[in-house]
C-alpha cells in the first residue's frame, strides 16, 4: 500500500470506566475507500469519535499524512482536512439548502468542491435550493449533509451509516455519488451495515466485533460468507 493518508495504531478508548475499543489499528490508503463493518455496538461510531478527538486517545494513536494528530481538537482536524458526515444528518433547520452549503463552504478550505459542483452531483438539491433543508426527504437531507462535507474540501471524509433510515432506492442514489467523490481525490471510511453494498464499494475492509478488529484487508480477499461470519463474531 502507498503510505496511508490516515492511520490508527493500537487505539484503545471508551466512556469513563467502560472500554469500547481494544487496540484497534487500520490504514486508509490515499484516494481509497475503506469499508468499516460490524454489528450494533461493535465500536464503529466510537472509532470515528476517537479519530475526531471527541474521546480520549493518545497522540501517537492517530496519524494523518504521517504526522501524529491524536492530540488535536476536532476543529483543527477539519482545518487539516478530516471531516465526518454524521449518522442523523444534523443540518441547520432554519437555513435553506443553499445556505447550509454556503455556510459550510465559507468555513472550509477552498478547492475543487463548490456549492455549484454539489448541485451538479445532486441535481435534486439544485431544484430545492431555496427550501428549508429540513423540509426535504431523508435522502435529500443526507445529500445536503454530504454536500456540506464536500464544500469543506477535505482529504478524508468519515461517513457514519449514511443509509440509516433511508428507503433502498434512495440509498442507491446516495451511494451512487461515492465513486465520483472518491474520484475527485477524497479518501473515505464508510460505516455500512449492508455487507454486500460495502464489499462492492470499498477497496479495503475492516470488521469490528466487540471493540476489536476481527478482519482486515483488501475487499476482494473476502467472500460475503467470511465477512458475514466476522460481522457476527463467528
Ligand atoms: N456515550 C456512551 N456512553 C457509554 N457507552 C457508550 C456510549 N456510546 C456508545 N457506548 C457503548 O460503546 C460500545 C460501542 O458503541 P458504538 O456506538 O461505537 O457502536 P457502533 O458499532 O457504532 O454501533 P451502532 O451501529 O449501533 O451505532 C457499545 O457497547 C455502546 O453501548
UniProtKB/TrEMBL annotation:
User: Which one of the record's GO molecular function terms can you name?
Assistant: ATP binding
Which keywords appear in this protein's UniProt record, sorted alphabetically?
A: Amino-acid transport, ATP-binding, Nucleotide-binding, Transport
- Keyword Cell membrane carried by entry: no
Pfam families (UniProt xref): ABC_tran (PF00005)
The ABC transporter domain sits at: 6-233
- Keyword hit for Ubl conjugation: no
Q: What CDD domains does the annotation carry?
A: ABC_TM1139_LivF_branched
Tell me which family the UniProt entry assigns to this protein. Belongs to the ABC transporter superfamily.
Protein name stated in the entry: ABC transporter ATP-binding protein
What's the source species for this entry? Seohaeicola nanhaiensis
Lineage of the species this protein comes from: Bacteria, Pseudomonadati, Pseudomonadota, Alphaproteobacteria, Rhodobacterales
